[in-house]
Each structure stands twice: as C-alpha cells, then as structure tokens.
Design a protein that fits this description.
This protein is α/β, with parallel strands linked by helices and 130 residues long. It has five helices and five strands. The longest helix has 13 residues. The radius of gyration is 15 Å and the shape is globular.
Length: 130
C-alpha cells in the first residue's frame, strides 16, 4: 500500500465522482468554495492533488488547505466522508453545518447531517445563504 500511495501518478489517475463537477459549480454560484484535504504520505500526492483539483474543478492552490486538522479551518459548511472529522469540526464550529458524505464505510457512523448527493449539499448551502 505504501508503495502505491508513494508512487507518482496515483492522484492524477483518480476519477471524478459522478455529478461532482456540476455540484461544485452550483456551490460556487452560492458561496466561496475552498477544499480542505488531508495530506497523504508520499512525495507526489500533494502536488498531484493540487493539479487534479485545478484540472477538474478550476480550483487553484489559493483555495486549497492541506491539513489533517480540518477542525481548525473555519467556515459555514464542511463536507467530509469521515465521521470523526465531521464531529470534531462541528464541536469547534457549532454555528456551521457539518455534513457527512455517505459512503459504504461510514454507513453506521453518526455525525453531522448525512448527505447522499451534490444536490443535498447545494440545497443546504442555499438555505444557509438566504
């Protein structure tokens, strides 16, 4: 696993989830969108992730925060697939909307508000920005 994660090209080969590009575009019409992403070990991951985000979403490095301490990043909404990250962020940002992106590995976790689609996220952000 370490050899695969540490090798060049892993991040750049990742597919975009269906609906993600349109979902992010819809969010950008309603709010300032920043990507907060946990770094992985390896020489290539961080740079490749920046290039991947720019290529697929037009999100430049000035709108990307790479940290495992996502709870330290202030905002109105956080979307994450890890229940512990969502719960910790919600504790520190009680006025924010902490959204847990539904995934097979977190189905039995409870933290924040579970979302299953980009339209869920856009609807929540839209209600908060009115």
């Amino acid at each position: 696993v370490d050899a695969v994660i540490g090798a060049p090209g892993l991040c750049s080969r990742l597919d975009v989830l269906p609906g993600a590009v349109d979902g992010v575009r819809a969010l950008e019409m309603r709010a300032d969108v920043y990507v907060v992403t946990a770094p992985w070990d390896g020489l290539f991951w961080a740079g490749e992730r920046l290039a991947w985000l720019d290529k697929h979403f037009g999100i430049g490095k000035d709108r990307v925060v790479q940290t495992s301490a996502k709870h330290l990043v202030r905002g109105d909404v956080l979307v994450d697939d890890r229940a512990d990250t969502v719960a910790h962020w919600a504790e520190v940002n009680p006025a924010g909307a902490a959204l847990l992106w539904d995934a097979p590995y977190n189905r039995f976790d409870s933290a924040g508000c579970r979302v299953t689609s980009w339209s869920d996220v856009v609807e929540i952000v839209s209600r908060r920005s009115r």
